[in-house]
Amino acid sequence: MKANETAGLIAAFLSTRFPVDKMNFKSMVQAKEVPVHRLSWGYYTGGLTVLFFMIQVATGLLLLFYYQPSVSDANLSVEYIMKYVSAGALIRNMHAWSSSCMIFMVMVHLLTAFAMKAFDKPREITWVTGVVLLLITFSFGFTGYLLPWNQIAVNATKVMIQSIEEVGLYLPGVLSQVPQIVMETFQGEPSVGQATLDRFYALHVVILPFAVMALMGLHLISVQLHGMSQGVDKPTGKTERFFPMFLVKDLLFWSVVFLALFVVSVCIPFDSFLPYPLLEPYNSLASTPPGIKPEWYFYFVYYPLEMLPFWVILVGGVSAIVVLFLTPWIFKNMSRRGLRLVALGATAYLVMMTVFGEQIYHLVKPGS
What we know:
With 368 residues, the protein is mostly helical. The protein has a domain at 35-287: Cytochrome Bc1 Complex, Chain C. The chain contains 14 helices and 2 strands. It has a two-stranded antiparallel sheet. The radius of gyration is 22 Å and the shape is globular.
């Protein structure tokens, strides 16, 4: 294929995905219609993800006034915020709870978008940016987990970083050195320490937020340009105006969810679900306490990793990520009914590993 033909195909692809004639307020807001059917609730999941991200940014900025990113002061500064700063415990609880809520909601949003075939032409870029946002959201959880610098955070981070190095055992030639380079880049020194905290802090408060805002902007523009997907194989023909009807409902839903999050943050400290020894400041000379494991949103990888050979999880994980990125092309001819069955299967696996992962692990490996 000649260079001119390639350039023409790329230009045609981009012009279809980003139609200039629709880049105006009338097309993107005033004239936009939202389909009404039994799965219409799925259209609100993206907005909730945005809400939780906004709460993360607002509470995170407030925490930055007092948090000290050093191995000697990080844990003490978190304790100071919780005990002595006015509304500090509330802000930190809201940050922690909304973090879990954001990760949960971005997973729900991806599954509902998949089930409703929201990746169908010309929405491929909308889907791909959504997958990248999902991975960045998990990266937020991974990097933020270390910042309190307590026993569970540091030990769990060590295990997760070491698993990156292990990938090199299954790669050929020069590629086998890549995981080691990645691990050293994240860790910054021979073991998890100040350099690691510095890197995770920079990623968590600067690099990842800017990446999310850029990709979220592209994602939202794409959604506004192409509107909501029809959602079902047999449309009802019923619609409602995006502005003001859908937008008002969305904002009312935001208000209810925000109130619920506020009440939970006031009444239930996020750390109350962890035994106290795991929340002690990290001591490199102390033995690793029992009960070390990652946050709940990594259980779907953690428990299979404990039960199966590493290479099985590696192949499965890489395959899943590739399939996610290529979903618009792999599943383009599948009906929405078929897609819903696939989404239900994925949901069942995630729920099973998250809620019952530990019990399944003890059944597979009794006495462990």
